[in-house]
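step 3/5: co-fold with magnesium ion
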Amino acid sequence: MSEEATDFIRQRIRQDLDQGAVEGGVVTRFPPEPNGYLHIGHAKSICLNFGVAREFGGYTYLRFDDTNPAKESDEYVESIKRDVAWLGYDWGSHLTHASDYFDQLYNFAVELIERGKAFVCSLSGEEIRASRGTLTEPGTDSPYRSRSIEENLDLFARMKAGEFADGEHVLRAKIDMASANVNLRDPVIYRIRHVEHQRTGDRWVVYPMYDFTHCICDALEGITHSLCTLEFQDHRPLYDWVLDNININFHPPQIEFSRLALEHTVMSKRLLNQMVDDAVVSGWDDPRMPTIAGLRRRGVPAAAIRDFCKRIGITKQDGLVEMALLDFCIRQVLEKSAPRGMSVLDPLPVTLTNYPDDGETLEAAWHPQNAELGNRALSFSRQLYIEREDFSEEPPKGFKRLSPGGLVRLRYGFIIQCDEVIKDADGAIVELRCRYFPESKSGSDTSGLKPKGVIHWVDAASAQPVTLRLYQQLFTDPVPDLDDLASALNPDSVVEFSGFVEAAVASSEMQHFQFERLGYYARDSELADTFNRTVTLRDSYKPG
Ligand code: ATP
Ligand code: MG
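step 4/5: write C-alpha coordinates
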Protein backbone atom coordinates (compact mmCIF):
# COMPACT_ATOMS: atom_id res chain seq x y z
CA MET A 1 0.00 0.00 0.00
CA SER A 2 2.80 2.45 0.81
CA GLU A 3 4.36 3.92 -2.28
CA GLU A 4 8.10 3.39 -2.25
CA ALA A 5 10.27 6.26 -1.10
CA THR A 6 12.71 7.39 -3.77
CA ASP A 7 15.02 9.79 -1.98
CA PHE A 8 18.65 10.15 -3.02
CA ILE A 9 19.89 7.76 -0.36
CA ARG A 10 17.58 4.98 -1.44
CA GLN A 11 18.52 5.61 -5.06
CA ARG A 12 22.16 5.31 -4.13
CA ILE A 13 21.58 2.08 -2.20
CA ARG A 14 19.59 0.58 -5.05
CA GLN A 15 22.40 1.47 -7.41
CA ASP A 16 25.00 -0.08 -5.09
CA LEU A 17 22.95 -3.26 -4.90
CA ASP A 18 22.50 -3.38 -8.68
CA GLN A 19 26.21 -2.99 -9.23
CA GLY A 20 27.00 -5.71 -6.74
CA ALA A 21 28.88 -3.26 -4.54
CA VAL A 22 27.13 -4.53 -1.41
CA GLU A 23 27.75 -8.22 -1.07
CA GLY A 24 26.19 -9.23 2.22
CA GLY A 25 23.14 -6.95 2.13
CA VAL A 26 22.57 -3.48 3.49
CA VAL A 27 23.91 -2.76 6.97
CA THR A 28 23.17 0.55 8.69
CA ARG A 29 23.50 1.89 12.19
CA PHE A 30 21.81 4.37 14.45
CA PRO A 31 24.52 5.81 16.72
CA PRO A 32 23.03 7.91 19.55
CA GLU A 33 25.14 9.35 22.29
CA PRO A 34 23.46 8.35 25.56
CA ASN A 35 23.52 11.88 26.97
CA GLY A 36 19.81 12.63 26.74
CA TYR A 37 16.49 11.28 25.54
CA LEU A 38 15.75 10.84 21.86
CA HIS A 39 13.70 13.51 20.09
CA ILE A 40 11.70 13.59 16.90
CA GLY A 41 14.83 14.59 14.95
CA HIS A 42 16.38 11.31 16.00
CA ALA A 43 13.20 9.60 14.83
CA LYS A 44 14.00 10.84 11.32
CA SER A 45 17.38 9.15 11.49
CA ILE A 46 15.92 5.99 13.07
CA CYS A 47 13.22 5.67 10.42
CA LEU A 48 15.82 6.17 7.71
CA ASN A 49 18.43 3.75 9.04
CA PHE A 50 16.08 1.00 10.17
CA GLY A 51 13.75 1.73 7.25
CA VAL A 52 16.30 1.22 4.47
CA ALA A 53 17.71 -1.90 6.10
CA ARG A 54 14.21 -3.34 6.28
CA GLU A 55 13.33 -2.33 2.71
CA PHE A 56 16.52 -3.70 1.21
CA GLY A 57 16.74 -6.81 3.35
CA GLY A 58 19.51 -5.96 5.76
CA TYR A 59 19.88 -5.08 9.40
CA THR A 60 20.68 -2.13 11.62
CA TYR A 61 22.97 -1.74 14.58
CA LEU A 62 21.83 0.25 17.55
CA ARG A 63 25.23 1.53 18.61
CA PHE A 64 25.69 3.67 21.68
CA ASP A 65 28.33 6.26 21.03
CA ASP A 66 29.55 6.25 24.63
CA THR A 67 32.92 7.96 24.38
CA ASN A 68 32.13 10.87 26.67
CA PRO A 69 31.63 9.22 30.08
CA ALA A 70 31.03 12.45 31.98
CA LYS A 71 27.66 13.13 30.35
CA GLU A 72 26.34 9.65 29.79
CA SER A 73 24.12 7.45 31.91
CA ASP A 74 22.24 4.18 32.06
CA GLU A 75 18.93 6.01 32.30
CA TYR A 76 19.57 7.46 28.86
CA VAL A 77 20.66 4.10 27.45
CA GLU A 78 17.45 2.46 28.67
CA SER A 79 15.27 5.30 27.42
CA ILE A 80 16.86 5.09 23.97
CA LYS A 81 16.24 1.35 23.71
CA ARG A 82 12.66 1.79 24.85
CA ASP A 83 12.03 4.57 22.33
CA VAL A 84 13.57 2.81 19.33
CA ALA A 85 11.58 -0.34 20.11
CA TRP A 86 8.42 1.67 20.62
CA LEU A 87 8.89 3.31 17.23
CA GLY A 88 8.61 -0.21 15.85
CA TYR A 89 12.21 -1.08 15.06
CA ASP A 90 14.21 -4.10 16.08
CA TRP A 91 17.99 -4.23 16.26
CA GLY A 92 17.86 -7.94 17.06
CA SER A 93 21.31 -9.06 18.18
CA HIS A 94 22.97 -5.91 16.83
CA LEU A 95 23.23 -3.88 19.99
CA THR A 96 26.71 -2.44 20.43
CA HIS A 97 28.61 0.33 22.18
CA ALA A 98 31.61 2.28 21.03
CA SER A 99 33.10 1.15 24.33
CA ASP A 100 32.94 -2.47 23.11
CA TYR A 101 35.75 -1.45 20.77
CA PHE A 102 37.95 0.47 23.20
CA ASP A 103 40.76 -2.11 22.96
CA GLN A 104 40.70 -2.13 19.17
CA LEU A 105 40.48 1.65 19.00
CA TYR A 106 43.49 1.92 21.26
CA ASN A 107 45.42 -0.48 19.05
CA PHE A 108 44.53 1.48 15.92
CA ALA A 109 45.78 4.63 17.61
CA VAL A 110 49.06 2.86 18.38
CA GLU A 111 49.20 1.81 14.75
CA LEU A 112 48.85 5.42 13.64
CA ILE A 113 51.72 6.39 15.95
CA GLU A 114 53.87 3.57 14.57
CA ARG A 115 53.23 4.84 11.06
CA GLY A 116 54.24 8.33 12.07
CA LYS A 117 50.63 9.50 11.62
CA ALA A 118 49.86 10.51 15.19
CA PHE A 119 51.74 12.23 17.99
CA VAL A 120 51.34 13.05 21.63
CA CYS A 121 50.84 16.78 22.03
CA SER A 122 51.47 18.49 25.35
CA LEU A 123 49.94 21.84 24.54
CA SER A 124 46.98 22.86 26.68
CA GLY A 125 43.49 22.80 25.19
CA GLU A 126 43.65 26.57 25.01
CA GLU A 127 46.97 26.52 23.15
CA ILE A 128 45.71 23.93 20.71
CA ARG A 129 42.67 26.03 19.95
CA ALA A 130 44.80 29.15 19.51
CA SER A 131 47.17 27.43 17.10
CA ARG A 132 44.41 25.97 14.94
CA GLY A 133 44.15 29.03 12.72
CA THR A 134 40.89 30.22 11.22
CA LEU A 135 38.84 29.59 8.12
CA THR A 136 41.07 32.04 6.25
CA GLU A 137 44.41 31.46 7.99
CA PRO A 138 46.34 28.22 8.34
CA GLY A 139 47.17 26.81 11.75
CA THR A 140 50.65 26.44 13.15
CA ASP A 141 52.42 23.19 13.88
CA SER A 142 52.56 22.03 17.47
CA PRO A 143 56.11 22.10 18.88
CA TYR A 144 55.51 18.44 19.85
CA ARG A 145 54.69 17.40 16.29
CA SER A 146 58.22 16.13 15.69
CA ARG A 147 58.39 13.84 18.70
CA SER A 148 59.88 10.48 17.78
CA ILE A 149 57.71 7.43 17.29
CA GLU A 150 59.34 5.82 20.33
CA GLU A 151 58.63 8.79 22.53
CA ASN A 152 55.03 8.95 21.29
CA LEU A 153 54.51 5.24 21.95
CA ASP A 154 55.94 5.59 25.44
CA LEU A 155 53.88 8.66 26.29
CA PHE A 156 50.66 7.21 24.91
CA ALA A 157 51.18 4.01 26.93
CA ARG A 158 51.74 6.10 30.04
CA MET A 159 48.65 8.18 29.26
CA LYS A 160 46.71 4.93 29.22
CA ALA A 161 48.38 3.75 32.43
CA GLY A 162 47.06 6.81 34.24
CA GLU A 163 50.38 8.57 34.84
CA PHE A 164 49.06 11.98 33.75
CA ALA A 165 46.32 14.30 34.77
CA ASP A 166 43.38 15.32 32.57
CA GLY A 167 44.52 17.68 29.83
CA GLU A 168 48.24 17.13 30.34
CA HIS A 169 48.61 15.41 26.98
CA VAL A 170 46.42 14.45 24.04
CA LEU A 171 47.01 12.25 21.04
CA ARG A 172 46.63 14.06 17.73
CA ALA A 173 46.47 12.80 14.19
CA LYS A 174 49.34 14.22 12.13
CA ILE A 175 47.62 15.49 9.00
CA ASP A 176 48.04 19.06 7.82
CA MET A 177 47.90 22.27 9.84
CA ALA A 178 47.50 24.24 6.62
CA SER A 179 44.52 22.25 5.33
CA ALA A 180 41.61 24.33 4.12
CA ASN A 181 39.47 21.96 6.16
CA VAL A 182 39.91 22.84 9.83
CA ASN A 183 38.92 19.30 10.81
CA LEU A 184 42.15 18.03 9.23
CA ARG A 185 44.45 20.34 11.20
CA ASP A 186 45.96 17.66 13.42
CA PRO A 187 42.69 16.84 15.23
CA VAL A 188 42.77 15.43 18.73
CA ILE A 189 41.89 11.74 18.64
CA TYR A 190 42.47 10.70 22.28
CA ARG A 191 42.28 12.60 25.52
CA ILE A 192 42.77 11.85 29.19
CA ARG A 193 39.65 11.75 31.38
CA HIS A 194 39.84 10.35 34.86
CA VAL A 195 36.14 9.64 34.89
CA GLU A 196 34.23 6.47 35.67
CA HIS A 197 32.57 5.09 32.53
CA GLN A 198 29.08 3.65 32.86
CA ARG A 199 30.16 0.42 31.17
CA THR A 200 33.92 0.10 31.48
CA GLY A 201 34.16 1.52 34.99
CA ASP A 202 37.67 2.74 35.79
CA ARG A 203 39.41 0.54 33.23
CA TRP A 204 40.20 3.42 30.95
CA VAL A 205 41.48 6.91 31.59
CA VAL A 206 42.03 7.69 27.91
CA TYR A 207 38.97 8.02 25.73
CA PRO A 208 38.83 8.26 21.92
CA MET A 209 37.22 11.25 20.24
CA TYR A 210 34.07 10.94 18.14
CA ASP A 211 35.69 11.45 14.71
CA PHE A 212 38.26 8.75 15.35
CA THR A 213 35.80 6.34 16.94
CA HIS A 214 32.87 6.59 14.63
CA CYS A 215 34.48 5.61 11.34
CA ILE A 216 36.34 2.69 12.93
CA CYS A 217 33.17 1.34 14.58
CA ASP A 218 31.38 1.67 11.23
CA ALA A 219 34.16 -0.28 9.51
CA LEU A 220 34.36 -2.98 12.19
CA GLU A 221 30.62 -3.53 11.97
CA GLY A 222 30.67 -3.65 8.16
CA ILE A 223 28.28 -0.71 7.81
CA THR A 224 27.53 -0.46 4.10
CA HIS A 225 26.02 3.03 4.26
CA SER A 226 26.94 5.37 7.10
CA LEU A 227 24.11 7.88 7.11
CA CYS A 228 24.53 11.03 9.10
CA THR A 229 23.38 14.62 9.20
CA LEU A 230 24.82 17.46 7.13
CA GLU A 231 26.96 18.99 9.85
CA PHE A 232 29.27 16.01 9.43
CA GLN A 233 29.95 16.77 5.78
CA ASP A 234 33.12 18.67 6.69
CA HIS A 235 34.20 15.75 8.86
CA ARG A 236 33.99 13.29 6.02
CA PRO A 237 37.61 13.84 4.88
CA LEU A 238 38.71 12.95 8.41
CA TYR A 239 36.43 9.89 8.45
CA ASP A 240 38.13 8.78 5.25
CA TRP A 241 41.63 9.73 6.39
CA VAL A 242 41.44 7.58 9.52
CA LEU A 243 40.24 4.52 7.60
CA ASP A 244 42.83 5.08 4.86
CA ASN A 245 45.68 5.23 7.34
CA ILE A 246 45.05 2.16 9.45
CA ASN A 247 45.04 -1.48 8.54
CA ILE A 248 41.33 -2.18 8.25
CA ASN A 249 39.67 -3.98 5.37
CA PHE A 250 36.39 -2.15 5.16
CA HIS A 251 35.61 1.46 4.30
CA PRO A 252 31.96 2.54 4.54
CA PRO A 253 30.82 5.57 2.56
CA GLN A 254 29.52 8.41 4.69
CA ILE A 255 26.38 9.96 3.21
CA GLU A 256 24.84 13.10 4.67
CA PHE A 257 21.23 14.28 4.80
CA SER A 258 19.60 17.32 6.38
CA ARG A 259 18.51 17.43 10.00
CA LEU A 260 14.90 17.82 10.94
CA ALA A 261 14.00 21.21 12.36
CA LEU A 262 10.46 21.66 13.59
CA GLU A 263 8.62 24.91 14.25
CA HIS A 264 7.92 26.05 17.80
CA THR A 265 10.38 23.69 19.39
CA VAL A 266 14.08 23.02 19.80
CA MET A 267 15.95 19.91 18.83
CA SER A 268 19.22 20.20 20.66
CA LYS A 269 19.85 17.78 23.49
CA ARG A 270 21.82 20.45 25.29
CA LEU A 271 18.82 22.79 25.35
CA LEU A 272 16.37 20.03 26.18
CA ASN A 273 18.67 19.00 29.01
CA GLN A 274 18.74 22.55 30.25
CA MET A 275 14.94 22.76 30.23
CA VAL A 276 14.75 19.59 32.30
CA ASP A 277 17.42 20.84 34.73
CA ASP A 278 15.79 24.26 35.05
CA ALA A 279 12.43 22.52 35.61
CA VAL A 280 10.64 24.62 32.99
CA VAL A 281 9.14 21.27 31.99
CA SER A 282 8.28 18.36 34.28
CA GLY A 283 10.92 16.06 32.77
CA TRP A 284 12.15 14.50 29.54
CA ASP A 285 8.72 12.97 29.07
CA ASP A 286 6.75 16.15 29.62
CA PRO A 287 4.04 15.97 26.95
CA ARG A 288 5.17 19.33 25.55
CA MET A 289 8.67 18.06 24.84
CA PRO A 290 9.68 17.09 21.28
CA THR A 291 11.16 13.92 22.77
CA ILE A 292 9.83 10.52 21.77
CA ALA A 293 8.95 9.94 25.44
CA GLY A 294 7.08 13.25 25.60
CA LEU A 295 5.19 12.63 22.37
CA ARG A 296 4.27 9.13 23.54
CA ARG A 297 3.00 10.46 26.85
CA ARG A 298 0.96 13.09 25.03
CA GLY A 299 -0.67 10.21 23.17
CA VAL A 300 1.06 10.42 19.79
CA PRO A 301 1.04 6.95 18.19
CA ALA A 302 4.31 5.56 16.85
CA ALA A 303 2.66 5.09 13.46
CA ALA A 304 2.05 8.84 13.25
CA ILE A 305 5.73 9.58 13.85
CA ARG A 306 6.76 7.06 11.19
CA ASP A 307 4.28 8.57 8.74
CA PHE A 308 5.58 12.05 9.55
CA CYS A 309 9.18 10.99 8.89
CA LYS A 310 8.13 9.48 5.60
CA ARG A 311 6.29 12.61 4.51
CA ILE A 312 9.16 15.00 5.33
CA GLY A 313 11.44 12.83 3.25
CA ILE A 314 15.21 12.78 3.00
CA THR A 315 17.05 15.60 1.25
CA LYS A 316 20.20 17.67 1.50
CA GLN A 317 18.27 20.92 2.01
CA ASP A 318 17.83 22.25 5.49
CA GLY A 319 14.28 23.34 6.12
CA LEU A 320 11.84 24.11 8.85
CA VAL A 321 8.89 21.75 9.08
CA GLU A 322 5.51 23.01 10.23
CA MET A 323 4.05 21.55 13.40
CA ALA A 324 0.75 21.32 11.50
CA LEU A 325 2.21 18.47 9.45
CA LEU A 326 2.90 16.42 12.57
CA ASP A 327 -0.61 17.20 13.85
CA PHE A 328 -2.02 16.07 10.52
CA CYS A 329 -0.17 12.75 10.73
CA ILE A 330 -1.39 12.21 14.29
CA ARG A 331 -5.03 12.84 13.30
CA GLN A 332 -4.72 10.49 10.33
CA VAL A 333 -3.86 7.62 12.66
CA LEU A 334 -6.20 8.47 15.52
CA GLU A 335 -9.19 9.22 13.30
CA LYS A 336 -9.20 5.56 12.30
CA SER A 337 -8.16 3.95 15.56
CA ALA A 338 -9.29 6.04 18.52
CA PRO A 339 -12.61 5.14 20.12
CA ARG A 340 -15.03 8.02 20.63
CA GLY A 341 -16.13 9.17 24.04
CA MET A 342 -17.65 12.14 25.75
CA SER A 343 -15.92 14.45 28.13
CA VAL A 344 -16.79 17.87 29.49
CA LEU A 345 -13.91 20.24 30.15
CA ASP A 346 -15.73 23.07 31.85
CA PRO A 347 -18.93 21.65 33.31
CA LEU A 348 -22.23 23.52 33.59
CA PRO A 349 -24.92 21.59 35.53
CA VAL A 350 -28.20 20.94 33.72
CA THR A 351 -31.32 19.66 35.46
CA LEU A 352 -33.99 18.08 33.28
CA THR A 353 -37.05 19.12 35.26
CA ASN A 354 -39.50 16.76 33.53
CA TYR A 355 -37.22 13.71 33.49
CA PRO A 356 -38.17 10.82 35.84
CA ASP A 357 -36.08 10.11 38.94
CA ASP A 358 -34.82 6.81 37.54
CA GLY A 359 -32.26 7.16 34.80
CA GLU A 360 -31.87 5.01 31.70
CA THR A 361 -29.05 3.53 29.71
CA LEU A 362 -28.41 4.65 26.14
CA GLU A 363 -26.10 2.97 23.68
CA ALA A 364 -23.45 4.45 21.48
CA ALA A 365 -20.81 2.99 19.18
CA TRP A 366 -17.19 3.33 20.28
CA HIS A 367 -16.33 4.20 16.70
CA PRO A 368 -18.59 5.30 13.84
CA GLN A 369 -16.76 3.24 11.18
CA ASN A 370 -15.05 0.52 13.13
CA ALA A 371 -17.78 -1.83 14.36
CA GLU A 372 -15.16 -4.15 15.83
CA LEU A 373 -14.76 -1.79 18.74
CA GLY A 374 -18.40 -2.47 19.69
CA ASN A 375 -20.72 -0.32 21.76
CA ARG A 376 -20.67 1.36 25.08
CA ALA A 377 -23.40 2.09 27.60
CA LEU A 378 -24.18 5.74 28.36
CA SER A 379 -26.06 6.58 31.52
CA PHE A 380 -28.64 9.31 31.12
CA SER A 381 -30.49 10.94 33.99
CA ARG A 382 -32.05 14.11 35.40
CA GLN A 383 -28.69 15.68 36.25
CA LEU A 384 -26.18 16.23 33.47
CA TYR A 385 -23.20 18.39 32.68
CA ILE A 386 -22.76 20.24 29.44
CA GLU A 387 -19.87 22.41 28.27
CA ARG A 388 -20.19 25.93 29.66
CA GLU A 389 -19.24 27.22 26.20
CA ASP A 390 -22.24 25.47 24.71
CA PHE A 391 -24.66 27.79 26.45
CA SER A 392 -25.08 31.46 25.60
CA GLU A 393 -27.51 33.74 27.35
CA GLU A 394 -27.35 36.22 24.50
CA PRO A 395 -26.40 34.05 21.57
CA PRO A 396 -24.50 35.70 18.75
CA LYS A 397 -26.01 35.34 15.29
CA GLY A 398 -25.61 31.83 13.95
CA PHE A 399 -25.11 30.27 17.40
CA LYS A 400 -26.21 26.64 17.05
CA ARG A 401 -26.03 25.52 20.63
CA LEU A 402 -28.15 26.10 23.73
CA SER A 403 -29.68 29.44 24.66
CA PRO A 404 -32.72 30.55 26.72
CA GLY A 405 -35.85 29.11 25.13
CA GLY A 406 -33.75 27.41 22.46
CA LEU A 407 -33.50 23.75 21.48
CA VAL A 408 -30.42 21.57 21.15
CA ARG A 409 -29.82 17.85 20.77
CA LEU A 410 -27.75 16.00 23.34
CA ARG A 411 -25.54 13.62 21.37
CA TYR A 412 -27.00 10.04 21.39
CA GLY A 413 -29.76 11.31 23.70
CA PHE A 414 -32.70 13.65 23.61
CA ILE A 415 -33.58 17.14 22.46
CA ILE A 416 -33.73 19.62 25.33
CA GLN A 417 -34.98 23.17 25.70
CA CYS A 418 -33.65 25.70 28.19
CA ASP A 419 -36.41 27.13 30.40
CA GLU A 420 -34.52 28.83 33.19
CA VAL A 421 -31.02 30.15 33.94
CA ILE A 422 -29.99 29.98 37.62
CA LYS A 423 -27.33 32.44 38.80
CA ASP A 424 -25.43 32.97 42.02
CA ALA A 425 -25.24 36.23 43.98
CA ASP A 426 -22.48 37.48 41.64
CA GLY A 427 -24.53 36.84 38.56
CA ALA A 428 -22.54 33.81 37.43
CA ILE A 429 -24.55 31.04 35.81
CA VAL A 430 -24.55 27.99 38.07
CA GLU A 431 -27.27 25.79 36.57
CA LEU A 432 -29.65 25.48 33.67
CA ARG A 433 -33.17 24.13 34.09
CA CYS A 434 -34.29 22.45 30.94
CA ARG A 435 -37.06 20.21 29.74
CA TYR A 436 -36.50 17.18 27.59
CA PHE A 437 -38.75 15.78 24.84
CA PRO A 438 -39.39 12.07 25.55
CA GLU A 439 -40.27 11.29 21.91
CA SER A 440 -37.00 12.82 20.61
CA LYS A 441 -34.64 9.98 21.51
CA SER A 442 -31.78 9.57 19.04
CA GLY A 443 -32.54 6.82 16.55
CA SER A 444 -36.28 6.82 17.23
CA ASP A 445 -37.12 10.51 17.08
CA THR A 446 -40.79 11.18 16.31
CA SER A 447 -40.87 14.64 17.86
CA GLY A 448 -40.70 16.56 14.59
CA LEU A 449 -38.47 19.11 16.37
CA LYS A 450 -35.54 20.58 14.46
CA PRO A 451 -32.77 21.77 16.77
CA LYS A 452 -29.89 23.51 14.98
CA GLY A 453 -27.08 21.86 16.87
CA VAL A 454 -25.83 18.80 18.73
CA ILE A 455 -23.74 19.11 21.89
CA HIS A 456 -21.83 16.70 24.09
CA TRP A 457 -22.63 16.02 27.73
CA VAL A 458 -22.02 13.58 30.57
CA ASP A 459 -24.30 12.13 33.21
CA ALA A 460 -23.52 13.86 36.51
CA ALA A 461 -23.91 10.86 38.80
CA SER A 462 -21.84 8.36 36.85
CA ALA A 463 -19.20 10.55 35.17
CA GLN A 464 -15.67 10.38 36.50
CA PRO A 465 -14.00 13.62 37.64
CA VAL A 466 -10.70 13.97 35.79
CA THR A 467 -7.96 16.44 35.02
CA LEU A 468 -7.72 17.36 31.37
CA ARG A 469 -4.52 18.95 30.14
CA LEU A 470 -4.49 20.95 26.96
CA TYR A 471 -1.11 21.45 25.37
CA GLN A 472 0.05 24.05 22.93
CA GLN A 473 3.38 24.97 21.38
CA LEU A 474 6.20 25.00 23.90
CA PHE A 475 7.66 28.12 22.27
CA THR A 476 5.66 31.08 21.08
CA ASP A 477 7.75 31.80 18.00
CA PRO A 478 8.13 29.31 15.16
CA VAL A 479 11.89 29.80 15.50
CA PRO A 480 12.50 30.51 19.19
CA ASP A 481 15.31 32.74 20.36
CA LEU A 482 17.71 30.21 21.80
CA ASP A 483 19.70 32.84 23.69
CA ASP A 484 16.71 33.66 25.82
CA LEU A 485 14.92 30.38 26.33
CA ALA A 486 12.99 31.49 29.40
CA SER A 487 11.16 34.33 27.70
CA ALA A 488 10.73 32.38 24.48
CA LEU A 489 8.55 29.84 26.29
CA ASN A 490 4.82 29.98 25.64
CA PRO A 491 3.20 30.82 29.02
CA ASP A 492 0.05 28.94 27.95
CA SER A 493 1.78 25.78 26.78
CA VAL A 494 -0.32 23.80 29.24
CA VAL A 495 -3.79 24.68 30.50
CA GLU A 496 -5.51 22.42 32.98
CA PHE A 497 -9.24 21.75 33.34
CA SER A 498 -11.15 19.92 36.06
CA GLY A 499 -13.79 18.14 34.05
CA PHE A 500 -15.49 14.81 33.62
CA VAL A 501 -15.35 11.81 31.34
CA GLU A 502 -18.24 9.43 30.80
CA ALA A 503 -18.15 6.29 32.95
CA ALA A 504 -17.41 3.93 30.05
CA VAL A 505 -14.26 5.88 29.21
CA ALA A 506 -13.15 5.94 32.84
CA SER A 507 -13.54 2.19 33.26
CA SER A 508 -12.17 1.13 29.89
CA GLU A 509 -8.62 -0.08 29.38
CA MET A 510 -8.20 1.88 26.18
CA GLN A 511 -5.55 4.60 26.06
CA HIS A 512 -6.56 6.90 23.21
CA PHE A 513 -9.90 8.60 22.66
CA GLN A 514 -11.51 11.14 20.52
CA PHE A 515 -13.59 13.16 22.96
CA GLU A 516 -16.37 14.35 20.75
CA ARG A 517 -16.01 17.94 19.60
CA LEU A 518 -12.98 18.44 21.89
CA GLY A 519 -10.06 16.64 20.33
CA TYR A 520 -7.94 13.53 20.68
CA TYR A 521 -6.89 12.67 24.20
CA ALA A 522 -4.78 10.00 25.85
CA ARG A 523 -4.72 8.68 29.37
CA ASP A 524 -1.62 9.95 31.15
CA SER A 525 0.81 7.13 31.84
CA GLU A 526 1.92 8.52 35.20
CA LEU A 527 -0.96 10.39 36.78
CA ALA A 528 -4.27 8.73 37.62
CA ASP A 529 -7.48 10.25 36.25
CA THR A 530 -5.57 12.56 33.96
CA PHE A 531 -5.99 12.89 30.22
CA ASN A 532 -3.63 14.71 27.88
CA ARG A 533 -4.89 16.34 24.75
CA THR A 534 -2.83 14.81 21.98
CA VAL A 535 -4.08 17.05 19.21
CA THR A 536 -7.11 19.13 18.39
CA LEU A 537 -9.77 18.06 15.92
CA ARG A 538 -9.46 19.44 12.45
CA ASP A 539 -12.35 21.83 13.00
CA SER A 540 -10.85 22.94 16.20
CA TYR A 541 -13.27 23.67 18.98
CA LYS A 542 -11.53 25.94 21.48
CA PRO A 543 -13.01 26.28 24.93
CA GLY A 544 -12.27 29.36 27.02
P1 ATP B 1 22.62 17.06 19.77
O1 ATP B 1 23.51 17.83 18.84
O2 ATP B 1 21.32 17.70 20.04
O3 ATP B 1 23.31 16.56 21.00
P2 ATP B 1 23.23 14.78 18.29
O4 ATP B 1 23.06 14.83 16.84
O5 ATP B 1 24.62 14.96 18.80
O6 ATP B 1 22.23 15.77 18.96
P3 ATP B 1 23.26 12.00 18.68
O7 ATP B 1 22.87 11.20 19.85
O8 ATP B 1 24.69 12.06 18.33
O9 ATP B 1 22.68 13.44 18.90
O10 ATP B 1 22.39 11.60 17.41
C1 ATP B 1 22.31 10.30 16.94
C2 ATP B 1 21.96 10.33 15.49
O11 ATP B 1 20.74 11.06 15.29
C3 ATP B 1 23.02 11.03 14.68
O12 ATP B 1 23.32 10.22 13.57
C4 ATP B 1 22.40 12.32 14.26
O13 ATP B 1 22.84 12.73 13.00
C5 ATP B 1 20.90 12.00 14.25
N1 ATP B 1 20.13 13.20 14.53
C6 ATP B 1 20.21 13.98 15.62
N2 ATP B 1 19.39 15.05 15.51
C7 ATP B 1 18.77 14.94 14.32
C8 ATP B 1 17.80 15.73 13.61
N3 ATP B 1 17.30 16.85 14.13
N4 ATP B 1 17.39 15.30 12.40
C9 ATP B 1 17.86 14.15 11.88
N5 ATP B 1 18.78 13.38 12.49
C10 ATP B 1 19.23 13.74 13.69
MG1 MG C 1 26.27 13.67 18.43
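step 5/5: annotate
The chain is about 25% helix and 25% strand.
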